[in-house]
Write a structure and sequence with these properties.
Blueprint: H1 4-12, E1 18-24, E2 30-36, H2 37-44, E3 48-51, E4 78-83, E5 89-90, E6 97-106, H3 117-130, E7 134-145, H4 150-155, H5 173-177, H6 180-192, E8 197-202, E9 208-213, E10 216-217, H7 218-238, E11 243-244, E12 260-266, E13 269-270, H8 283-294, H9 296-303, E14 325-327, E15 334-337, E16 345-348, H10 357-374, H11 398-406, H12 409-415, H13 417-435, H14 440-446
Parallel strand pairs: 1-6, 14-15
Antiparallel strand pairs: 1-2, 3-4, 4-6, 5-6, 7-9, 7-10, 7-11, 7-12, 8-9, 12-13, 12-16, 15-16
Helix pairs in contact: 3-10, 6-7, 8-10, 9-10, 9-11, 10-12, 11-13, 12-13
Length: 450
């Protein structure tokens, strides 16, 4: 991390000349401006402005209608981007550059915009703090690394994609050594940027990678995840390669996930641990997990926000298909990790690599809080191959998940009607856009035979 005084010193000595002033958009991407560092320290550190369409676009930066917060009719005005100086950090993979994340404020009221991802997660973190708990989380980033660059792949129409390796490289040291020209700078640059990187490894497919970051406070974890995802793309590009965080880029390849580990702490100690329990689970943890399970359909749209997200949920691929928990069992949607130890925690295996971590974690925390407040009872864990069964299925499509989000009284109470309606509309936009497009699959299947 970097203090503001340190930044001023580095700017005056000529070590830093650029400040990335960023907000996190609905899709979990960094958006913002590049400031001349001398202008930033002279005054722009207090605030800057952006068009309010940045929190009402799709992946293509289109401006779909139907959002209450902004529209063509309302003229697309400004938001205030308020730099959070506690998030200042170097960006070692870009020369002379530092980064700061911003809270997004209403231009008139100076209040945080409620559907801003940082504001949404912050609200749930603060709810837990009022209950006496700190939310601790960790996310795993999975992605595919390709032989060619983003530009080459785009010019070829995203066809004939070739991963950087030719075989399943799960835990392979031999194959991942060939990828160190990309993965080593990712690990080292992110560490130097203040992210507590643990390791990288080959994942269970050709060209698939995983990056692991040490657990931290929920807000910090979301920040680490967002910055790491951005850095992976930039660093891979610098080395002439493309990466994708698309959950399912090919129907004959396994997908990419982003598992979320979570626990609550109190006074610096793990509140999920009870040494007298058979599995080491405290009553608090059991109620929290019961909430996660009961309300999983409600927040699935935050864990799987696109049409493609649902292509990943297939039996026998280590992606879950059912909302069920089990002990150290990777076939379940929720896995109990570290049973019998102080490191006990729950791993949610539903989120895909395309999730916005702020939204996904906010949904989980809200569900866990509901479980505690409602005093929910956790059912016994499932055993064996959890794929065998057809009860408690994860919503099968974005349409189903959007309907569950829209009808969620729990999330409307926890997040607010405005926030729920905003992200329901985001899901509807994705569905509408997909339904109007003719795919290669349809043409190949029906061109002659239909």
């Amino acid at each position: 991390m970097l203090s503001f005084d340190d930044l001023k010193s580095q700017v005056s000595s000529g070590l830093v000349d650029t400040v990335l002033v960023c907000l996190v958009d609905m899709q979990g991407r960094l958006m913002g401006k590049r400031f001349h560092a001398k202008h930033f320290v002279a005054g722009a550190w207090e605030e800057t402005h952006c068009c309010n369409y940045l929190l009402a676009t799709d992946l293509e930066m289109a401006t779909p209608d139907g959002y209450a917060s902004t529209s063509w009719e309302n003229g697309y005005g400004d938001y205030v981007m308020k730099p959070d100086l506690a998030t200042l950090r170097p960006v070692p993979w870009l020369e002379g550059t530092v980064m700061v994340l911003c809270d997004v404020l209403d231009h008139h009221t100076q209040e945080e915009v409620p559907h801003s991802p940082r504001a949404i997660l912050k609200r749930q973190v603060n709810r837990l703090k009022e209950m006496g708990y700190d939310a601790m989380c960790a996310t795993e980033l999975e992605f595919f690394l390709f032989e060619k660059s983003f530009d080459e792949i785009r010019r070829a129409g995203f066809r004939d994609l070739a991963p950087i390796s030719g075989y399943n490289e799960d835990y392979s040291i031999l194959q991942t050594s060939r990828e160190e020209h990309v993965m080593r700078p990712i690990r080292n640059h992110l560490w130097d940027a203040g992210l507590p990187i643990e390791n990288s490894k080959g994942e269970a497919e050709t060209g698939q990678e995983e990056l692991n970051i040490k657990y931290a406070m929920a807000m910090d974890t979301a920040e680490y995840h967002t910055i790491a995802k951005h850095a992976v793309k930039e660093i891979a590009h610098q080395q002439g390669h493309a990466v994708t965080f698309l959950p399912k880029w090919s129907h004959d390849k396994v997908g990419s996930s982003s598992h979320v580990h979570q626990s609550l702490w109190q006074d610096g100690k793990p509140a999920f641990h009870d040494p007298s329990d058979e599995l080491g689970m405290s009553p608090l943890m059991k109620a929290y997990m019961a909430g996660l399970l009961k309300y999983a359909p409600d927040y699935t749209a935050f864990m799987a926000p696109y049409i493609n997200s649902y292509k990943r949920f297939m039996k026998g691929t280590f992606a879950p298909t059912r909302i069920i928990w089990s002990v150290d069992n990777r076939t379940a949607g929720y896995r109990l990790c570290g049973d019998g130890t102080k490191a006990i925690r729950v791993e949610c295996r539903i989120p895909g690599s395309d999730m916005n971590p702020y939204l996904a974690m906010a949904g989980m925390l809200a569900a866990g809080i509901a479980g505690i407040e409602e005093g929910l009872e956790l059912q016994p864990p499932a055993k064996g191959d959890v794929y065998q069964g057809d009860s408690g299925l994860i919503p099968g499509t974005l349409r189903d998940a959007a309907a569950a989000l829209k009808g969620s009284g729990m999330l409307r109470s926890a997040l607010g009607d405005e926030v729920v309606d905003h992200y329901v509309r985001a899901a509807e936009v994705e569905i509408e856009e997909f339904e109007r497009v003719v795919t290669d699959y349809e043409i190949a299947r029906g061109f002659e035979r239909a």
